[in-house]
Amino acid sequence: MSANATILRLPAARTTTTRRTKNDVNPPRKTSESGRKLRLVTGVTKDQDGMATDYSVRLAPGAIARIKLSEVAPGHSWIDWVYVPPDWRDLGLGGQLMRRVLEDADRHGVRLSLEARACGDTDQAALERWYQGLGFVRSGRRGTFGPILVRPVARARAA
Fold first, then answer.
1. Distance CA 133, CA 137 (A)
2. What are phi and psi of 77, to 5 degrees?
3. pLDDT digits over 7-63, tens only?
4. Domain-located, residue 26
5. H-type alpha helices, 1-157
6. What CATH code is carried by the domain that includes residue 43?
C-alpha cells in the first residue's frame, strides 16, 4: 500500500430482523401459467383409519386447515365444518382437503350431508356452488343458517 493511500471505512450494513409470531403467517403465493394460485396439500392427517372424523393439514405454525365430521348413523356422516385460515383461502386447499374426505366416503360407502353456511366475508351463493361442484345437491331442507346439502354414496364403476 502506498503512503498516500487512504483507508475508507464504511459503517457496517444495518440488518433488520423481523420477528415472526405464530399468528404472523404469510402463505406462499405461487401461480401457474394461467395465473391460478397453487398450493398442494401433501400431509393430510386423519384421526383414525377408514372414514375419519377429523381431516387436517398443518400449513404453517398456527395455521391449520381442517374438516370436522361426525357420524350420524352407520354409512352416513355429517360435515360439521370446513375451515381454511383466511390468509390461505383461494389457493385450492379446501377443495383438495374436501376431495380427500370424498375419496374416503366413496371408498367406505358413506353418504355425506352438511349445512351450507357462509361465515365472515364468504358469499353464500358462491359457497353453495362450491359444494355443488363437489357433488353435493340440495335436499330441500333448511338448517338454521343455510340449506342442507347431501352427497349420495358414489356407485362403484364397472370394470
1. 9
2. -120, 150
3. 444 444 444 444 444 444 444 554 444 455 444 555 778 878 889 999 999 888 889
4. no
5. 93-107, 124-133
6. 3.40.630.30
- Report if residue 24 sits inside a domain: no
**pLDDT 10s digits, 107-142:** 999 999 999 998 878 889 999 999 999 999 999 898
Task: For residue 92, tell me if it sits in a domain.
Answer: yes
Answer for the pair 92, 114: CB distance below 8 angstroms, yes or no.
no
Answer yes or no: are the C-beta atoms of 151 and 111 closer than 8 Å: yes
Range of the domain at 142: 35-151
Quick check: 68 and 53 in contact, CB under 8 A?
yes
What are the phi and psi torsion angles at 8 (to 5°)? -100, 120
SS3 label, residue 83: strand
Among 95, 68, 63, 103, smallest CA distance to 82 is for: 68
Give residue for cell 375451515.
Answer: 83
